[in-house]
Specification:
Strand order of the largest sheet: 1-2
Structural class: mainly alpha
Radius of gyration: 26 Å
Order of helices and strands: HEEHHHHHHHHHHHH
Helix content: over 70%
Largest sheet: 2 strands, antiparallel
Number of strands: 2
Distance between the termini: 68 Å
Low-confidence stretches: none
Mean pLDDT: 86
Length: about 300
C-alpha cells in the first residue's frame, strides 16, 4: 500500500474587494498625478535643439541638468520663492487662528444655529477662485471700490493694488476663501473629543476658554497639523488669485510666484525650463512640508 503524502495547505487567496474600493482613487491618482509628474521630470531633462541652421528641423535631445541650472541661476526664481515663503509665514497662521476660533465657537455649549453658521463659513470655499478674485479685485480697484472711498473719506490713502500691498491683498482673498474649509476640518476633530473630559473640567471650575486651551486644542493637534500642511502646500501653488490681479495691476509680474513663472515659461514655448521649475518647486514643497511634520511631531513628543 502506497504511503499517503500530506498535501500542501492551500494558500489563502487575497480578497480583491480592498483593491476594488481603492481603484476609484488609485486610477485617477496614477493617471493625473504620477504620470504628469513623471513626464514633467522627463521633459526637464531634455531640450529642443535645431539642426541645419535657423530654418532646420527641431528635435528633442538629452540635456541633463542644464534646465535646472538655468532655473536656479535666474533671479526671478529666488525672488518668487521668497515672496511665497513670506506669504505663507504670515497668511497661514492668521487663517488657521481664525479657523480655530470659529470652530471653537461652533463647538461651544452656548452656540446656536450651528448648521447655519457652518454653511455660512463654508460658502466662500464653494465660490470658484477666479470669481472670488474678481470680486475682491473690484473691492480693491481705486476707481470702483467702495472700501477705498470709505478709507479716503477717513483720511487714509490706501493703494490696495500697489506693489507694497498687493501681496497682502492676495493673502486676504486666500484667507477669506479657505478659512471655512479649515474650520470644518478642525470642527470635525472637535466633535471627536470625549464630552466627559470637558464636563469633568467644567465641574472642577474650568472656564470655557480654559477648556479650549488646555483640553480641546491639545487633543485636536493632529487636525491642526493637517490643516497646516495643506495650507503650506497650497501657498506654494499660489496661482489663481495673483493671475487674476495681474490683469488689473502692474504690481503682479509674469514671475510673481513660481507657478506663474512656470506658466509664463510654458506660454513662451520654454517647456523644458517650465518643467524643471515645476520639479524644483515640487521638491521644495515636499521638503518644507516634511520638515514641518517632523517639527510638529517632535513638539508633540
Amino acid at each position: 500500500m502506497k504511503p499517503t503524502t500530506a498535501s500542501a495547505p492551500d494558500r489563502p487567496r487575497r480578497p480583491l474587494a480592498p483593491y476594488a474600493f481603492l481603484a476609484p482613487f488609485l486610477i485617477p491618482f496614477v493617471l493625473f498625478t504620477l504620470v504628469p509628474v513623471a513626464y514633467a521630470f522627463w521633459q526637464s531633462l531634455h531640450k529642443t535643439a535645431r539642426t541645419g541652421g535657423t530654418f532646420g528641423k527641431t528635435r528633442t535631445v538629452f540635456a541633463g541638468l542644464e534646465q535646472y541650472g538655468r532655473v536656479l541661476g535666474e533671479d526671478y526664481f529666488s525672488e518668487s520663492l521668497l515672496r511665497v515663503l513670506g506669504f505663507a509665514l504670515v497668511q497661514i497662521p492668521v487663517m488657521l487662528l481664525l479657523a480655530l476660533v470659529l470652530a471653537l465657537l461652533l463647538d461651544s455649549a452656548v452656540a446656536r444655529a450651528k448648521r447655519f453658521f457652518r454653511l455660512v463659513y463654508f460658502v466662500p470655499y464653494g465660490i470658484p477662485g477666479v470669481v472670488a478674485a474678481l470680486m475682491w479685485a473690484f473691492l480693491y480697484d481705486p476707481r470702483l471700490s467702495p472700501v477705498v472711498d470709505v478709507l479716503r473719506s477717513a483720511g487714509v490713502q490706501a493703494d490696495l493694488l500697489g506693489p507694497d500691498a498687493i501681496l497682502w491683498s492676495i493673502a486676504n482673498v486666500v484667507t477669506w476663501t479657505y478659512t471655512g474649509y479649515n474650520m470644518l476640518i478642525i470642527y470635525a476633530a472637535l466633535q471627536a473629543v470625549p464630552a466627559d473630559i470637558a464636563e469633568a473640567a467644567r465641574m472642577d471650575g474650568a472656564s470655557g476658554w480654559t477648556i479650549a486651551l488646555r483640553i480641546k486644542i491639545p487633543i485636536i493637534r493632529p487636525a491642526l497639523v493637517l490643516t497646516g500642511v495643506f495650507s503650506l502646500i497650497g501657498s506654494f501653488q499660489l496661482f489663481t488669485e495673483p493671475q487674476v490681479f495681474r490683469t488689473i495691476s502692474t504690481s503682479v509680474t509674469s514671475t510673481y510666484t513660481p507657478n506663474i513663472a512656470a506658466y509664463s515659461l510654458a506660454a513662451g514655448d520654454s517647456y523644458s525650463e517650465a518643467a524643471a521649475l515645476s520639479v524644483v518647486l515640487a521638491v521644495v514643497t515636499f521638503v518644507l512640508s516634511f520638515a514641518f511634520l517632523r517639527f510638529t511631531t517632535r513638539r508633540q513628543g
